[in-house]
Please model this.
Amino acid sequence: MNRPLLAAIRTFLALSVFAALQAQAAVIGFSVQSLGGSLFRYDYSVTHQAGDAPIALIDIEFDPSLYLESSLNIVSDPSLDADWDQIIIGSQSGLPALFDLFALGAPLDGGASLTGFAIEFEWLGSGLPGVQAFSISDPDTFDVLASGRTRAAVAQPVPEPSTLALAGLALALALAFGSRSGS
Model:
C-alpha cells in the first residue's frame, strides 16, 4: 500500500475513535435567563441518542457553593407532570443537590427529544451560571448508565461535517497529493 492511502486510513480510524469517545447516551442542553440580580432560570432540553438505552432517570447536579439550594424552584412546563416526576433532592455531605427527573410512563427513546424542564435559582457564583454535571441511571438498580455535562444552547446551530465526510475529505486529499508526488 502506498503512504497516502495508509495515512488516509489512519486518519479515518483516528476520527472514528474520537467520535466514539465523544458519544453520550443523551445530550442535555440548557439556556440561561436572567431574572434580575442574582436570580436566574435554566431551561433544559433532553435528546436521546438513538441506539442507546432508553432514558428513565436523570439527575442534574447543583453545587451548593454555586447555587443557593433553598432557592431551587422547579418551574417546568405543567404538561410534563403526567409523564415525568420532578423533584429536588437536597445535598448531602460531599454530594450536590440534584434536579431529579423520573419517567412515570414510557422512557425517552429512539432519538426523541423533550423540552420544557426548568429551574429557577439564586446564583452564588461569579459571572453567569454555566454547564452542570448530569447522570443517567437505571431506575431499578440506580446504576449510572451514562454521565456528562450539559451543553449551552446555541442561538443558531452551526452545521458540522460528519466524521465520515471528514474522513472522505482526508482520503481524497491524501490520494490527490499521493498521485502528484508519484508523477
